[in-house]
Design goal:
The protein is mostly helical and 176 residues long. The chain has one domain (3-175): AhpD-like (Up-down Bundle), CATH 1.20.1290.10. The chain has ten helices and no strands. It has helices at 3-9, 15-24, 35-49, 52-62, 68-93, 98-102, 110-113, 119-133, 136-148, 153-175. Helix 8 crosses helix 10. The protein is globular, with a radius of gyration of 16 Å. The two termini are 20 Å apart.
Length: 176
C-alpha cells in the first residue's frame, strides 16, 4: 500500500488535502521530526480519527516505515490518550467545582512513564492525538514535555500539521 493509493481515494473537492498529505508525510515537509516520528504520528492520528478505512490504509502505508515495537508504542499512545483526553478535558472544562478538580484521577497510566519506545516519540504521538480529540490540558502537558526533551517548535508544529491533515483525510474519506 502506498500513499498514492490513499491520495487516489481523496476526491477532487479535497485536493488541498491530497497535496498536504505529500507535504506533511515527508522529512522536508515536517521539519524537526524523523521519518519514524512522521509516520508514527500519521498512524497515531489515524487511530484518533476513529475512521476504520483510514486506520486500515495508515497501517498498510506505515508497515514498512516503522517497526513492530514502534507500532505497539503508537497503539499504546492512542489507547491511553483515549482515556486521558476524556478525563483531562473534563477537568479543563469543569467550572466552579474546585473540590471535584482536586480529586485524584485514580486511573492507571504507567505506560506514559514506560512506553516501550523512545519517550520523545511517545510524546509526539500523544500530542497529535490530543490535538485531534481536543484536550487542552493534554496538549499543554505534551508540548511542555516535548520542549523539555529538546524538540524545537518546528517539530511540534509538524506533529500538529500531520494530525490536522490526517483528520481532514478521514473526513474526506467519510464523505466520499
Amino acid at each position: 500500500m502506498s500513499l498514492e493509493t490513499l491520495k487516489d481515494l481523496v476526491k477532487d473537492y479535497a485536493r488541498d488535502i491530497r497535496i498536504n498529505l505529500d507535504s506533511v508525510l515527508s522529512v522536508e515537509g515536517a521539519p524537526g521530526l524523523t521519518e519514524t516520528q512522521i509516520y508514527g504520528t500519521f498512524l497515531a492520528s489515524a487511530y484518533a480519527t476513529k475512521s476504520d478505512k483510514l486506520r486500515e490504509l495508515a497501517e498498510a502505508i506505515t508497515e514498512s516505515r516503522i517497526g513492530p515495537e514502534e507500532r505497539e508504542g503508537v497503539k499504546a499512545a492512542a489507547t491511553i490518550m483515549g482515556m486521558n483526553n476524556i478525563y483531562y478535558r473534563y477537568l479543563h472544562l469543569l467550572e466552579g467545582q474546585e473540590e471535584l478538580k482536586k480529586l485524584p484521577a485514580k486511573l492507571r497510566m504507567t505506560v506514559i512513564g514506560k512506553p516501550g519506545i523512545e519517550k520523545l516519540n511517545f510524546e509526539v504521538y500523544s500530542l497529535a492525538i490530543s490535538a485531534i480529540t481536543g484536550c487542552g490540558m493534554c496538549i499543554n502537558a505534551h508540548v511542555h514535555e516535548l520542549k523539555k526533551a529538546g524538540l524545537e517548535d518546528l517539530g511540534i508544529q509538524s506533529a500538529i500539521r500531520i494530525a490536522a491533515v490526517t483528520n481532514a483525510t478521514a473526513q474526506a474519506l467519510q464523505i466520499s
